């Protein structure tokens, strides 16, 4: 029974890509017979008395599934299930898929998927952490290469005792070292006197 699925995908592959309008009645019957044969092979119940193998050894059902996978039959079943023009085979394909998962419990399948997802998630997390550390190292290297510029902002100070306009204290925007040379005219433009009016 294990060798028989190798022949079936060749027959299905020759028939499936054909347009359903060009397909002959014999081709439709052949596709249906192949799907029914696969269903019947998977439908055979397990016999524990015959399958006395070592613990962890693959059962006959598992070996049939592996042969179907190696031959490419599972890809053809996915094609038949998803193709819009092949909807007439949907129930056959659904029955075959349910028989494929006959010995599996939903909890085992879910746990298997979570285990793989957790391993992939851990690998992705390690990869992201490595990329983050590399980016931080590049930022530090760029910060060390950047020339340091002196800020021209010296701060703002309130000069108590000196009154500005409106009886408010003067706000001084220069550095404290410039405070000795402070005058109210600081920052104002000098008025230019024409040369002919210069004092002699």
Notes on the structure:
By secondary structure, this protein is mostly helical. Helix content is 50%, strand content 6%. The protein contains six helices and two strands, in the order ααααααββ. The chain has a two-stranded antiparallel sheet with strand order 1-2. A hairpin with a 5-residue loop joins β1 and β2. α1 (8-15) packs antiparallel against α2. The protein is rod-shaped. The chain starts with 7 loop residues before the first helix and ends in a 28-residue tail after the last strand. InterPro entries: Timeless (IPR044998), Timeless_N (IPR006906). Residues 18-158 form the Timeless N-terminal domain. One of its GO terms (molecular function) is DNA binding.
Break the fold down into its secondary structure elements and pairings:
Elements: H1 8-15, H2 25-43, H3 60-71, H4 73-82, H5 90-100, H6 106-145, E1 157-163, E2 169-172
Antiparallel strand pairs: 1-2
Helix pairs in contact: 1-2, 2-5
InterPro entries: Timeless (IPR044998), Timeless_N (IPR006906)
Main location: nucleus
GO cellular component, one term: replication fork protection complex
